[in-house]
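Reopening this ticket.

The earlier resolution said the output was attached, but the attachment link was broken on my side. Pasting everything inline this time so it's all in one place.
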Amino acid sequence: MRYRPEHKGEVHQKIVKDASRRVRTEGITGAAVSAVMRDAGLTHGGFYKHFGSKDELLMESVTEAFQETADRLAHVAKQSKPGTAWKAIVKAYLSLEFCNHPEYGCPMTALAPELARADKAMKAPILGELVKYKSRMLPFMPGRRTADKERAFFSIFSTMIGAIEIARMLPEPAMREKVLASAREFLLQSF
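Inline output:
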């Protein structure tokens, strides 16, 4: 059977998107190649037609996760009133929806401890993704100078990441919302 020329690229992108969601849900070690390929409707044997190694798939999945999250947050920011973009990001990020669906959430909230322990070969590409993520969010941060915006980015995102991680550990939605609301209120009143 002959496929269209773009078929392989489309399948590759589907595998990466599926793997990205699985990695954010189950962690780096939880995303087995066989499960990822099964999700894509393919056999384990077809994996090497698309990737040289599991690490290559993992890095593409993490890249996809950062890109997807940055796109979502940038969209929210651009839809907000002038001067309130960072507040819109805080409200979207610290929502129960974002918290309850790690498969669509920020890779930092799902993977930070694992990414911190990644081997040296993956550290540089992960850092590159973090820098791109920060660059996408920086224009929306409060502050006049770049240094002020960077300081705000690190303070805001560190607080949001921690709040989501803590909220996800809690069994009751009301408890989760309390943590998220506290962090939202703190951030919105701090800048």
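Reporter confirms the inline version is readable. The mean pLDDT is 90. The CA atoms of residues 147 and 153 lie 10 Å apart.
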